[in-house]
Specification:
Layout (H helix, E strand, L loop, with lengths): L1 E5 L2 H11 L8 E5 L6 H11 L14 E5 L4 E6 L6 H6 L10 E5 L12 E9 L2 E12 L15
Parallel strand pairs: 2-5, 2-6, 4-5
Antiparallel strand pairs: 1-7, 3-4, 6-7
């Protein structure tokens, strides 16, 4: 487990942009944390790496938003409104796993059916400074096992 401390909204997006450089088709990222903890800002940073930062919108009412450029598709899911894993399966959610990069906000709901390899990032706010976000990064499976997640931090 890695604990990454981002001291501002900008640093959260910058960290995500740097991390995005290792992502490829078929990668899955699960984002968890309370509302306002920085999950959507993190997604903005990921999209920035791929030149898609101007297109972000919250998928809260659509479950999934697709972003694509000439090289890759990114699927940004917000599973907050789903009641259970079966609802995700009924919308054909598993079909997205190999189509591009999948990012799941509130993804803990579907952990039982995720591919063997994924990143789980838990977001929390620092109690004494509302700008600081703490990202706890856990690797599941082998895909991300050898990566030093501290290396994506910039001073």
């Amino acid at each position: 487990m890695y604990e990454i401390i981002c001291k501002s909204e900008y640093k959260t997006k910058e960290y995500a942009r740097n991390l995005a450089g290792i992502l490829k088709k078929g990668d899955v990222i699960v984002l968890s944390g309370e509302l306002g903890a920085g999950k959507t800002k993190f997604v903005e940073g990921l999209l920035n790496h791929f030149g898609l930062q101007d297109e972000i919108s919250s998928p809260t009412f659509t479950i999934v938003n697709e972003y694509k450029n000439e090289k890759i598709s990114i699927f940004h899911f917000d599973l907050y409104r789903l009641s259970d894993i079966y609802e995700f399966e009924n919308i054909g959610g598993e079909e997205y796993f190999n189509k591009g990069i999948c990012i799941f906000e509130w993804g803990e709901l579907i952990e039982d059916i995720l591919p063997n390899d994924y990143l789980k990032i838990s977001f929390s706010k620092q109690n004494d400074d509302e700008n600081i976000r703490i990202l706890n990064i856990e690797t599941v499976g082998d895909r991300f096992k050898e990566i030093d997640f501290y290396s994506f931090l910039e001073e």
